[in-house]
Amino acid sequence: MIIGAIEAGGTKFVCGIGNEDGVISERVSIPTTTPEKTMTEVVAFFEDKGIEALGIGSFGPVELDQSSSTYGFITSTPKPHWAQFDLVGELKKHFDVPVGFDTDVNAAALGESLWGAAKGLDSCLYMTVGTGIGVGALAEGKLVHGLTHPEMGHIMVRRHKDDTFAGRCPFHGDCLEGMAAGPAIQDRWGKKGHELEGSPEVWEMEAHYLAQAIANYVLILSPKKVIVGGGVMKQKQLYPLVREKVKEILNGYVQHEQILERMDEYIVAPGLGDNAGLAGAIGLVR
Amino acid sequence: MIIGAIEAGGTKFVCGIGNEDGVISERVSIPTTTPEKTMTEVVAFFEDKGIEALGIGSFGPVELDQSSSTYGFITSTPKPHWAQFDLVGELKKHFDVPVGFDTDVNAAALGESLWGAAKGLDSCLYMTVGTGIGVGALAEGKLVHGLTHPEMGHIMVRRHKDDTFAGRCPFHGDCLEGMAAGPAIQDRWGKKGHELEGSPEVWEMEAHYLAQAIANYVLILSPKKVIVGGGVMKQKQLYPLVREKVKEILNGYVQHEQILERMDEYIVAPGLGDNAGLAGAIGLVR
């Protein structure tokens, strides 16, 4: 089967062709500018590929309720030009094939459960820590939507005792994203993450926030695997710091060997690397 | 169909007989003492009822993994005599019928979705604020188990600015349960909740903690309805306080009319009152 896949991000649309086993044979990256320009290029890429289905994982917020008149729309994004854009509708005009649609992070969670770090599990989280913080969730074999879709990047967290940074989320100030996404690191320390590699206090503080969030996710969703990726996590020293702090916070309360003894297999990097989103988009149409 | 139902709590086992429509025709309350004494009475109650199936919602932690050798056990509870007790196994010895088993709060969430405040919805939370704080979750039509089962009562919360109480969770000190369950109220203020009815500062502080937790649950699970019950919520003035603070915390970020405009229908008391758990236990075998 020839499946088209789109990972629609705020910076770029990654488009690819794959099969039902998640094998990707071709991919291109198209800058996210205006819907008109970007979509013209996206449509041109798929036009002669003979796709039989199309899967889309998109930045959000998006409308996932199939009974809604705005199903398939990117809704209230602050990104210029893209608010209330009918992403699925626009593609349906050009391709008369079944379409699967979900958030970028839900797609990545699905991709990881099909072919990546959570392979074979019916439950996992996919967290990306970059320009923003987003988390997708697979629970009991299904991607979690609910009322809208999870927005776990915006949960409230306790401040680090040495942190005087005000936070930069326009909605919540010092929520998780406001304190721990890439731009918060840059604003707080005056340098980009990769320039701060040799400053342990930076990563101790970052791990403080990420571990709190993950501990709460574990207590609330009880995922079988927590996958953490995104630009900020290129700082690999974060993984052991985060694992240790999650264990400290839970303090033996969740009695499962994964958490008590095998934390290094529980909180992990994406198994599919940068392909999680694209593979997940393929998974959405399976 | 004659269905036996058990709501197994740390204080009492409520046993009942109902049908597949959740109509309860008979119920008794049996004190939770030792497994031997309590179970003898439970078995005696059901013995001549001709039950064709048995549903059990239990205090926990419990083992829900059907492939585990300890499936159906109450596991690491601090409650004397009950740790590692094979609840399902003991009942199976006496009743050769299909058994449904889950946590008490998951059962209540299911009951509310079948016949109560979340009727017809495929997603809801059931939160009980009493001696402890427990939350059950239905997501995408399924009760959430995952690795073990959710333990949402133990998430980290931000302290209220005027609160010097240390918290009383033996695992986490000032987690949600440590700060906001009934015994925390009593320890902090030196009186029981019902004696503090006329003290608005008590309920403002209590709402501060509950609203934070609910806002996090909404961001993480995106439930279609949040049902809050339990002894502490007999203080009905808490409901509007909690709703208002959840709205303040989310600050317009989750753009759904339920949250923006109809919060009084979104965060609600149990539709089944004190029968949610028992009805949910019936639901577990449907």
From TrEMBL, chains A, B:
It comes from Rossellomorea oryzaecorticis. Belongs to the ROK (NagC/XylR) family. The keyword Metal-binding applies. Its cofactor is Mg(2+). Its EC number is 2.7.1.4. This is fructokinase. Pfam families: ROK. The keyword tRNA-binding does not apply. It comes from the Bacteria.
